[in-house]
């Protein structure tokens, strides 16, 4: 995904640090804002992973740091709940003025509570998704319950949250008691997706139940089995982004997939080298997916490697070709398995000696057929497997044309 760094002034003149993530084709169909969890920041890996998955569904995602957190200006004591909501409203206004009014709000933990309140005040928001959100805003006070009384007596008090020191005051604590979140959810009347883990030890699953009961349809709930509150596992945050992206598009006007304007292109690949290491977004006319390298060679393993995609293309083309041939022959072929591996072998190790370069690409293709087939039929299918178009392309001499645009 392509990332653009932004500096956004809120209503108090405080500069908020933000990143606008764009789809691979840099032409989003929809815009979304992501609100991070309490004391977190927009650079949290879970936030980046969810944003990446959303961009693959055609969304541009603005992730930003609330006042006093991450790289934003201001003091944490000023980052009370109402200030978080105001930051969301100000960021939304900035997007509306400079890009396009966001139509989706996504919030994690207390950020989920903040997007519910903000959505009730923004007409352009068509759908809301929360992840691990509390059912009451004052739920967060349990994180520093021992210092609540002390702040009422002494004013500024240092608290430890998640191993990090923060300064809070009486106003900061009292702000959490001012918002009636259940009533806001009951009156929201916008499509709502609630995602929560039954293993969440910070915000219990009962919070999701309370929010769901208060909300009106259309509403949806997805359980995040085995996930923790911060979505520390990459597969959990990736899953969250994929589900939200697929769910939200149901409530927006269907947009045509916008490709880069290179004449005659069939596919576009994009890699933001600064942000994403090897993680590459690929988009065809109707589909988007990810390529990556395994962790063993320095990648993040978010998707298949380039050679795995090459093998996948060969495997898919092979089984499709065999299906069509067997149907035409009216043979009892019910299933086909193709096992493919690619390697580089020294020519001296090859069964067939050759005068070609010492190292050659070697592709192993093993076929398994399910059905009532004779030995002769299986042998014929084996022969036909080499006639699939992708096999022919790989085996033939290919002419490449490369240009800079």
Set down the secondary structure blueprint.
Layout: E1 2-9, E2 15-22, E3 30-35, H1 45-55, E4 59-64, H2 81-98, E5 104-108, H3 110-119, E6 127-131, H4 145-154, E7 157-161, E8 164-168, H5 170-175, H6 181-186, E9 192-196, H7 205-214, E10 219-223, H8 234-248, E11 268-270, H9 273-276, E12 280-283, E13 288-291, H10 306-329, E14 332-346, E15 359-372, H11 375-385, H12 389-395
Parallel strand pairs: 3-4, 3-5, 5-6, 6-9, 9-10
Antiparallel strand pairs: 1-2, 2-4, 7-8, 11-12, 12-13, 14-15
Which features does this protein show?
single chain, Rossmann fold, GMP Synthetase, Chain A, domain 3, 24% strand, 405 residues, alpha/beta, elongated, 33% helix, 12 helices
Question: How is this structure best described in words?
Answer:
Residues 45-138 form the Serine aminopeptidase S33 domain. InterPro entries: AB_hydrolase_fold, Hydrolase_4, KH_dom-like_a/b, OsmC/Ohr_fam, OsmC/Ohrsf. This protein is of the alpha/beta class and 405 residues long. It folds into 2 domains: 3-250, 3-Layer(aba) Sandwich (Rossmann fold); 267-395, K homology (KH) domain (GMP Synthetase, Chain A, domain 3), CATH 3.30.300.20. The protein is 33% helix and 24% strand. The chain is built from 12 helices and 15 strands. It has helices at 45-55, 81-98, 110-119, 145-154, 170-175, 181-186, 205-214, 234-248, 273-276, 306-329, 375-385, 389-395, and strands spanning 2-9, 15-22, 30-35, 59-64, 104-108, 127-131, 157-161, 164-168, 192-196, 219-223, 268-270, 280-283, 288-291, 332-346, 359-372.
């Amino acid at each position: 995904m392509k990332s653009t760094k932004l500096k956004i002034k809120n209503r108090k003149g405080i500069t908020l640090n933000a990143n606008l993530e764009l789809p691979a084709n840099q032409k989003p169909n929809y815009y979304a804002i992501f609100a991070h969890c309490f004391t977190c920041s927009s650079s949290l890996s879970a936030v980046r992973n969810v944003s990446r998955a959303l961009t693959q569904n055609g969304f541009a995602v603005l992730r930003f740091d609330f006042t006093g957190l991450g790289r934003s200006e201001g003091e944490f004591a000023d980052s009370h709940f109402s200030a978080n909501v105001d930051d969301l409203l100000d960021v939304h206004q900035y997007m509306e003025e400079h890009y396009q009014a966001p139509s989706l709000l996504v919030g994690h933990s207390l950020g989920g509570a903040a997007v519910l309140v903000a959505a009730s005040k923004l007409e352009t928001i068509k759908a809301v998704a929360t992840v691990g959100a509390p059912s009451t805003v004052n739920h967060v006070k349990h994180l520093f319950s021992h210092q609540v009384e002390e702040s009422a007596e002494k004013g500024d008090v240092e608290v430890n949250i998640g191993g990090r020191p923060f300064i809070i005051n009486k106003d900061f604590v009292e702000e959490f008691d001012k918002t009636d979140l259940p009533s806001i959810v009951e009156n929201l009347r916008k499509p709502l997706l609630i995602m929560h883990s039954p293993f969440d030890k910070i915000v219990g699953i009962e919070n999701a139940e309370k929010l769901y009961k208060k909300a009106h349809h259309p509403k949806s709930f997805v359980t995040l089995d085995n996930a923790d509150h911060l979505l520390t596992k990459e597969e959990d945050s990736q899953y969250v982004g994929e589900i939200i992206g697929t769910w939200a598009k149901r409530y927006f006007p269907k947009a045509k997939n916008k490709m880069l304007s290179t004449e005659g292109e069939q596919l576009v690949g994009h890699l933001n080298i600064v942000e994403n290491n090897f993680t590459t977004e690929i988009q065809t006319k109707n589909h988007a997916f990810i390529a990556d390298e395994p962790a063993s060679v320095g990648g993040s393993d978010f998707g298949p490697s380039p050679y795995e995609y090459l093998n996948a293309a060969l495997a898919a083309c092979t089984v499709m070709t065999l299906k069509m041939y067997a149907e035409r022959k009216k043979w009892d072929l019910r299933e086909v398995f193709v096992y493919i591996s690619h390697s580089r072998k020294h020519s001296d190790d090859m069964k067939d000696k050759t005068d070609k370069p010492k190292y050659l690409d070697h592709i192993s293709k093993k076929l398994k057929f399910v059905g009532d087939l004779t030995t002769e039929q299986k042998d014929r299918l084996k022969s036909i497997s080499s006639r699939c178009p992708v096999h022919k392309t790989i085996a033939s001499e290919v002419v490449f044309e490369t240009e800079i645009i």
